[in-house]
Amino acid sequence: MPLKWEFPGGKVEPGEDPAAAIIREIREELGCTVTVVSPLTPFVHDYRTVVITMIPFVCALAPDSPAPHAHEHVAIAWATPAELRGYDLAAADWPVVDALVKS
């Protein structure tokens, strides 16, 4: 999704636990370490050209982690759940925002 804001993450490798995958993906994409705080409800999103299964998690920056920085992205931002409504997010991320705002 070029020039859209999106949550970090990616593919779960065969045999990989989804929580371990988000920790790995964030380390690869942002160069930092997170801990999983809680899972959110998984869902399927159909982009018409590809169907993806989203397995979202609420994470926190680990106390001993370096600050995140963009390895694979143009920019990064910290935002509250309410502030996320002001971002031009990828379509698959909107259900995650809804879940975060409700929690």
CATH homologous superfamily identity: Nucleoside Triphosphate Pyrophosphohydrolase
Q: And the CATH topology?
A: Nucleoside Triphosphate Pyrophosphohydrolase
Q: What is the CATH top level name?
A: Alpha Beta
Shape estimate = globular
Query: How many distinct domains?
Result: 1
Please report the distance between the alpha carbons of the first and last residues.
27 Å
Spatial order of the strands forming the largest sheet: 1-4
- Find the count of extended strands (DSSP E, 2+ residues): 4
Give the % helix: 10-25%
SS-derived structural category: alpha+beta
CATH architecture: Alpha-Beta Complex
Strand content: 15-25%
Poorly predicted tracts of residues: none
Sheet of most strands? 2 strands, antiparallel
Task: Describe what this molecule looks like in 3D.
The protein has 103 residues and is an alpha+beta fold. It has a single domain, classed as Nucleoside Triphosphate Pyrophosphohydrolase. It has two helices and four strands. The strands form two sheets. The chain has a two-stranded antiparallel ribbon. A hairpin with a 4-residue loop joins strand 2 and strand 3. 11% of the residues are buried. The model has no long low-confidence stretch (mean pLDDT 94).
